[in-house]
């Protein structure tokens, strides 16, 4: 709590309204919210099926895959950014091909920010959803099968509603992690205002020039995170 | 629509090997102790586990045949299952649970809903259609589960311990209700239970499974009068001995001989009800052909009578009235004389 208190005490409250309306702040905030949300969507699309595979099927190398999924948790984000550059950079494993055939360039773009955030935040979603799947009774899927539901229908109409709280919890953790992402983003996507400069990057940059600006940006990030997490938490508790 | 199956499932330390046939409209009960492999057999029929050997044929279609590398997934089989704890989808209302199957089989939303409403009316739950499973009582949940299984118009109906989760009062009503619906089902039905009463009330034919194998099969009358294993004998409440017959005298082991009503030659079973065994303080004179000395090991209530467990040349259960028990001073350790009329002891070939 002490660092948070420090932030509040040192805040330049008198000039706060004026600083908040600076165009750079709003742009960074908008970009942060947008990329964190898109990264969460990306994690949901890729992570939920991955969690299902890990929880419900057996295939050779499953333990290895599970270990790999959690690697971004322990990997310094900067290293993750370097790894992404090696794969998706202009001269990376896939980057050159993507650029040549599809005309898609990921590094130093907003899409790159989303990718970097998704890479770092994915484990939070997969671990949460896999846990929910393991806790859910697989026999409901069997019951669905005897009623004529294929695997996809059974998953969509039976399993997914049963594990919805776990998916939601994973998505929120994932979103929160994506919102605060710094290392992988600055390495892979750079720091271009309006395009790849998210709030954490703006805070870091401001810190080198203007401490008060950094404090204001940090406060904004803190307020947004707390508001959204608290709001979602209440909603779950209300419905569950 | 005939079910013709030979179910072979191998697990470490356990092999299920059960031939099974059920004609259209016939209800077959798989009866056996816990761990006998009944539920495994049911899951193999439903396609929830694959056979290791044997086959499952329903009507003219082979559903599982490992030798031919053929396996039809459960969702492709037309088999309705009522699970032991029902497995109603907790997030769907009763009517949506029932409509789930028809929806998966390609019916429109409205059509599925209509069929579900119709089925819920038939099982007497029309006014509970909108309730979630957790708001239903055990008996109601069982009916919804039955309606859900019937909604896909299955060719084969499977029921796993359909009454096990219910209390005694609900059980009686639900059993009668289930009997009606099983009677109305055109295809074969297979019922798994460890309760002989459920099996005899609901099924046309009983298949007794012990330790993964069929030990006896037949209708309720045959099973109750001529048990062939200790488990079945205990189920139907008979004393059962295996022995060697020469005429009306049967050697049942330990040098002990029982005299029976009908002459046989060779290996036979001898069965008689506990109520046929009379107990005396002193050796009885006169008519009973079988008398022996025995020691009481246990006394327990059994309906209106007391069931006395005795050891001696043979272990035997006897039913006596409470008054007689008091008069004889029956308690563990008491020595008595047991007598059995030859006419009460039935012998039949082993």
Provide the gyration radius of chain A in Å: 20 Å
Q: What's the number of extended β-strand segments of chain B?
A: 19
Our estimate of the beta-strand percent of chain B is 35-45%
Order of helices and strands of chain B: EEEHEEEEHHHEHEHEEHHEEEEEEHEE
The low-pLDDT segments of chain A are: none
Structural class of chain A: mainly alpha
Major sheet of chain A, described briefly?
Answer: none
Query: How many domains in all of chain B?
Result: 2
Following the backbone from N to C, one meets helices and strands of chain A in this order, namely HHHHHHHHHHHH
Overall number of structural domains of chain A: 1
CATH topology of chain A: MetI-like fold
* Class inferred from helices and paired strands of chain B: alpha+beta
CATH architectural designation of chain A: Orthogonal Bundle
Bin the strand percentage of chain A.
under 5%
Gross morphology of chain B: elongated
**Oligomeric assembly:** heterodimer
Structural shape of chain A: globular
What key attributes describe this structure?
A: 240 residues, mainly alpha, MetI-like fold, B: 350 residues, alpha+beta, OB fold (Dihydrolipoamide Acetyltransferase, E2P), 2 domains, six-stranded mixed beta sheet, five-stranded antiparallel beta sheet, 9 helices, 37% strand, elongated
Structural write-up:
The complex is a heterodimer of chains A (240) and B (350). In chain A, 79% of the residues lie in helices and 0% in strands. Chain A is mainly alpha-helical. Chain A has a single domain, classed as MetI-like fold (Orthogonal Bundle), CATH 1.10.3720.10. The model of chain A has no long low-confidence stretch (mean pLDDT 87). By secondary structure, chain B is of the alpha+beta class. Chain B has 2 domains: 231 residues, P-loop containing nucleotide triphosphate hydrolases (Rossmann fold), CATH 3.40.50.300; 108 residues, RNA polymerase II/Efflux pump adaptor protein, barrel-sandwich hybrid domain (OB fold (Dihydrolipoamide Acetyltransferase, E2P), Beta Barrel), CATH 2.40.50.100. The two termini of chain B are 34 Å apart. Classes of the chains: A mainly alpha (240), B alpha+beta (350).
């Amino acid at each position: 709590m002490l660092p948070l208190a420090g932030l509040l005490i040192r805040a330049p409250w008198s000039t706060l309204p004026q600083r908040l309306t600076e165009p750079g702040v709003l742009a960074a905030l908008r970009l942060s919210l947008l990329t964190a949300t898109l990264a969460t969507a990306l994690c949901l699309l890729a992570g939920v099926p991955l969690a299902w595979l890990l929880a419900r099927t057996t295939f050779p190398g499953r333990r290895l895959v599970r270990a790999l999924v959690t690697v971004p948790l322990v990997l310094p984000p900067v290293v993750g950014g370097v790894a992404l550059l090696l794969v998706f950079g202009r001269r990376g494993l896939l980057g050159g091909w993507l650029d040549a055939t599809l005309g898609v360039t990921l590094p130093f773009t907003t899409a790159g920010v989303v990718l970097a955030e998704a890479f770092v935040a994915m484990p939070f979603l997969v671990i949460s959803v896999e846990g929910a799947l393991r806790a859910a009774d697989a026999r409901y899927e069997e019951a669905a099968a005897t009623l004529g539901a294929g695997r996809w229908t059974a998953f969509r109409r039976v399993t997914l509603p049963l594990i919805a709280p776990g998916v939601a919890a994973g998505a929120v953790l994932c979103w929160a992690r994506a919102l605060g992402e710094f290392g992988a983003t600055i390495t892979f996507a750079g720091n271009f205002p309006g395009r790849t400069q998210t709030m954490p990057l703006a805070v870091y940059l401001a810190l080198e020039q203007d401490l008060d600006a950094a404090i204001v940006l940090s406060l904004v990030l803190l307020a947004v995170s707390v508001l959204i997490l608290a709001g979602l938490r209440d909603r779950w508790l209300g419905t569950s | 629509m005939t079910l013709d199956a030979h179910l072979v499932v191998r697990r470490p330390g356990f092999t299920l090997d059960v031939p099974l046939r059920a004609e259209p409209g016939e209800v077959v009960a798989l009866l056996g102790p816990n761990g006998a492999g009944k539920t495994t057999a049911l899951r193999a029929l439903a396609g929830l586990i694959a056979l290791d050997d044997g086959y499952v044929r329903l009507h003219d279609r082979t559903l599982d045949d490992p030798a031919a590398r053929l396996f039809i997934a459960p969702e492709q089989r037309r088999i309705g299952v009522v699970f032991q704890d029902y497995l109603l989808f907790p997030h769907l209302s009763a009517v949506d649970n029932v409509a789930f199957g028809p929806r998966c089989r390609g019916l429109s939303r409205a059509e599925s809903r209509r069929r579900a409403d119709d089925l819920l009316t038939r099982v007497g739950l029309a006014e509970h259609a909108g309730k979630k499973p957790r708001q239903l009582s055990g008996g109601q949940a069982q009916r919804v589960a039955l309606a859900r299984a019937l909604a896909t118009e299955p060719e084969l109906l499977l029921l796993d311990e359909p009454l096990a989760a219910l209390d005694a009062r609900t059980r009686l009503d639900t059993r009668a209700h289930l009997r009606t619906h099983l009677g109305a089902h055109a295809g074969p039905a297979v019922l798994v239970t460890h309760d002989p009463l459920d099996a005899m009330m609901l099924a046309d034919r009983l298949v007794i499974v012990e330790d993964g194998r069929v030990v006896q099969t037949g209708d309720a009358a045959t099973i109750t009068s001529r048990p062939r294993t200790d488990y079945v004998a205990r189920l139907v409440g008979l004393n059962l001995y295996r022995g060697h017959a020469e005429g009306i005298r049967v050697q049942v082991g330990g040098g002990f001989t029982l005299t029976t009503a009908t002459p046989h030659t060779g290996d036979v079973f001898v069965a008689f009800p506990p109520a046929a065994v009379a107990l005396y303080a002193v050796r009885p004179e006169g008519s009973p052909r079988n008398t022996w000395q025995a020691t009481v090991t246990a006394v327990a209530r059994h309906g209106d009578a007391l069931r006395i467990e005795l050891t001696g040349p043979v272990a035997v259960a006897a039913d006596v009235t409470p008054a007689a028990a008091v008069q004889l001073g029956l308690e563990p350790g008491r020595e008595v004389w047991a007598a059995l009329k030859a006419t009460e002891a039935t012998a039949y070939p082993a």
